[in-house]
Write a structure and sequence with these properties.
The structure is a single chain. By secondary structure, the chain is mainly alpha-helical. Helix content is 62%, strand content 6%. Helix 1 crosses helix 3 and helix 2 crosses helix 3. The radius of gyration is 19 Å and the shape is elongated.
Length: 127
């Protein structure tokens, strides 16, 4: 997790978003333990209640489960659920703007798809 916080939203929300990102990127997988509240609070100089509030949001969303006396763990299927939600959010929120830009610039769809394929292929090549 990054140690920098910004003023754009509450820290507990930023912490929640960072854990979500770690799940989406595969850093945290199904059944993996989240770092303890005390560890995160000490490492990032946060109030433990702030960390707990961020973690509680993940519990409320069904992404993380509390195991009494053992900590917080990523629930089975959390990544799959997040990917589904992220895809839908992209289609609902970002894609319409992309389509408007394509129309406004009169971009050729075949050229766009070819460019996207090249970029995706480049990203998959070992560095």
């Amino acid at each position: 997790m990054e140690g920098e916080w910004n003023d754009s939203q509450p820290i507990y929300r930023q912490l929640r978003d960072r854990v979500v990102k770690m799940i989406l990127e595969g850093v945290l997988g199904d059944g993996d333990a989240l770092p303890s509240v005390r560890t995160v609070a000490a490492e990032y100089r946060l109030n433990p209640l702030t960390v707990l509030k961020g973690y509680q949001e993940l519990v409320d969303e069904g992404l993380v489960e509390k195991r009494r006396g053992r900590g917080m763990y990523v629930r089975d299927g959390a990544r799959k659920a997040l990917v589904k939600d992220e895809r839908q959010a992209f289609l609902d929120e970002q894609w319409p703007e992309v389509v408007r830009t394509i129309r406004r610039l009169k971009l050729d769809l075949d050229e766009l798809l070819a460019s996207a394929r090249r970029q995706l292929d480049d990203e998959e090549k070992p560095q």
